[in-house]
Amino acid sequence: MEARSRIESPDVEREASTTVVSIHSDADIVAARQKGRELARSLGFSAGEATLVATAISELARNVVQYAIRGEVALWPVTSGRRRGIAISVRDEGPGIPDVDRALEDGFSTSGRLGLGLPGVRRLMDEIDIESTPGRGTLVCATKWRH
Amino acid sequence: MEEPKQGAYMEVPILKQGAYLIATVQSALTDGDLLKLRDTLVVSVSKHRARGVILDLTALDVLDSFSTRTLRDLAHMIRLRGAEMVIVGIQPEVAFAMAQFGLTLEGISTTLDLEEGLAYLDGSTKPNRIA
Amino acid sequence: MPNTRDQTAILSPPSVATVALLTELVSHLRNNRTHLREEWVRLITEAELLTAMSRDEIFAEATSVYDSYVEGLETGTLEALQSYARNLSERIIPRGVETHEVVGIVLLLRDVLARSLFAKYRSDFTILNRMLDAYEPAANRIAITVAVGFVQERERVIREQQEAIRELSTPVLQVRERLLILPIIGVIDPHRARQLTEQLLRGIRTNRARVVVIDITGVAAIDASVANHLVLTVEAARLLGATVIVTGLSPEIAQTLVKIGVDLGKMTTVGDLQGGIEEAERLLGYKVFPIGGTQGS
């Protein structure tokens, strides 16, 4: 699936280079979240905010490892007017999420586990956008803006 | 319950201090490392007849839903073996992220650091202590 | 497609003819530097700009701006001018210089130089036009660069001041060993709420606090979002080994919050600050003796 999303409206601009981490093992989850923290700090986010971003990445990357075997995390800086922020996209070709809206509700659980952690990720980030086709894959995009 | 996959794991140092075990995790702790640590601690508690376990998370960069679930399992398993676990050293930023996410370590004792953790265990495991 | 790069940093690449014109222009400006600069300073004083600075200071800054201006025209890049503009802003903002003054003086310089071009080339309309064609876009870019640099610096200073005020207005007080008090006064927006929590958590670590009393008597409006944030703070504090006591939450407000779904179950609340402190001391194992009295009296 295309690593762009509805979140990238015309007035949000992708700046400069994108960092890509391919996700296959649990070590990749750690690598992706460390890169996320580094990028967030370099963009001027506080240590606290960078931890929110790293936690979101950790959660999303783990969904890939657990449900889709392999996938990709991309991170890049964005601007919108005078605001600066960080954008994350997590893409996989796994089984997909049948009901995205329910997955974003608190208390939803798949296969007896505690779900995909998506409501939590939404609380950590400012914007989240999920596109998923059962049998084809999932793309989660999330953005956090600096204060 | 999850099982650790085959592969290379980072050894988490576990020290024995009297009747307590102290495990100090490093920052780049993978899911596999955590599961291995869980199993190792449980075995060690039995083997050394430990009364308390201190898990030092000072260096841990992120605590997400998987780690939280695993830590709850660990606390439960340790309690089943007659010991008490206390988690110490969670960083303010990590605590904030957990709270924002909606994760709790309910039922697990948490203290600021190792010193507080030891004081806590001393208070709760010494049999004749007046509360 | 909007250009994400800083538009003002590089003037558009000039044609060969324009380069020749700009070279001639630049030497004209250099040769007449003394007289044009004085003219500019005279106009600045006449327009009553930069009144916060002395004449000598104005003259010194005018010299730097003039030279950077001409250099900008010559090299076609504005980096030197940008960093000078930032540097100048850092110095004059604390002196109370306003945006309209900075924009004003740059426009005056543009006019002074344009007039001198009129004077020099007035006998040949064609050459004058070509000179102005080369000069005007460059001059406009320069004006924008200096003005924007100044405004951005001002905004940065204002943000820092606001941040400092926020921090000052909510001190985390250590009154006893292991006990922190956080009195919150005023309106809490989401940004301030997050900042308060971060301050508190850092305070718990620094002071090794075991109990925190958060007093919200002075909070203007306690709605669901403030309450939820309080709950969040209580949870995060617990992860650092600290117990939170919330004071100043009236039973009526508490009831209302519970009705709209806020889970106050995990929060210890006491009516007033004094009661909260006493409860905190009890938790910490303190006994308080009234001065001159005996224990228990």
UniProtKB/TrEMBL annotation, chain A:
The keyword Transferase applies. CDD domains: HATPase_RsbT-like. Keywords: Kinase, Serine/threonine-protein kinase, Transferase. The keyword Transferase applies. SMART domains: HATPase_c. Residues 48-147 form the Histidine kinase/HSP90-like ATPase domain. Gene3D superfamilies: Histidine kinase-like ATPase, C-terminal domain. InterPro entries: Anti-sigma-factor_SerPK (IPR050267), HATPase_C_sf (IPR036890), HATPase_dom (IPR003594). Pfam families: HATPase_c_2. GO terms for molecular function: protein serine/threonine kinase activity. PANTHER family: ANTI-SIGMA-F FACTOR RSBW, ANTI-SIGMA-F FACTOR RSBW-RELATED. This is Anti-sigma regulatory factor. It comes from Eiseniibacteriota bacterium. The lineage of its organism: Bacteria, Candidatus Eiseniibacteriota.
